[in-house]
Automatic annotation (TrEMBL):
Pfam (any one): HAD_2
Taxonomic lineage of the native organism: Bacteria, Bacillati, Bacillota, Clostridia, Eubacteriales
Organism the protein comes from: Clostridium yunnanense
Entry-linked SUPFAM superfamilies: HAD-like
Name of the protein this chain belongs to: HAD family hydrolase
NCBIfam families reported in the protein's UniProt record: HAD-SF-IA-v1 (TIGR01549)
Residue ranges of the TM segments: none
Amino acid sequence: MYSTVIFDIDGTILDTEFAVLSSLQKLVYEETDKKLSFEDLLFSFGITGEAALSQLGIKDPKEGCNKWNEYLKDYFHHIKVFDDMEETLAKLHEMNISIGIVTSKTKLEYEADFMPFGLSNFFDIVVCADDTEKHKPDPDPILKFIELSGSDASKTLYIGDTIYDFRCAQDSHIDFALASWGCKSKDGINATYILKNPKDLLEIVNAV
């Protein structure tokens, strides 16, 4: 049985695709005069904002992130919690499963983008981009979580939607469950479990 379940945020707990990519499109066009499609920008999910902007040729990724976060506010009303996610989190909590977050968001982004949805109280520990020098797909964020929580890696499961999440879990030597409701490409992802719905987690936690 798993005693700890760790979640990614974007594409896993929250459906942020339209808001994140629309605001990123706006920033890239403003900074580089390039009109990029959502498909061109999907790689940005799962890595830090600064890493994504560096790959897009933004000259000052840090300042670019500040602008991106401002533009995101215009699309915030499009963000929603995935169906059945809140109910699943509540049930895991009732089952005394320790649940936490490992995200590529900074603490400020976590506070601005995630906390308004009222789910923060479910999570015992949150590891943000500020908490480690290296970020997903490097294992450091999950290893930091395990260090802070004292979790048993053999009884820990990470839920995410990207190849970066999978590699982070794999190199941390913990099991990985793919959130198929937010996943855009399964290429290279050899997940321990493929979840069709958040509620699938309840069966896995009970069965293992």
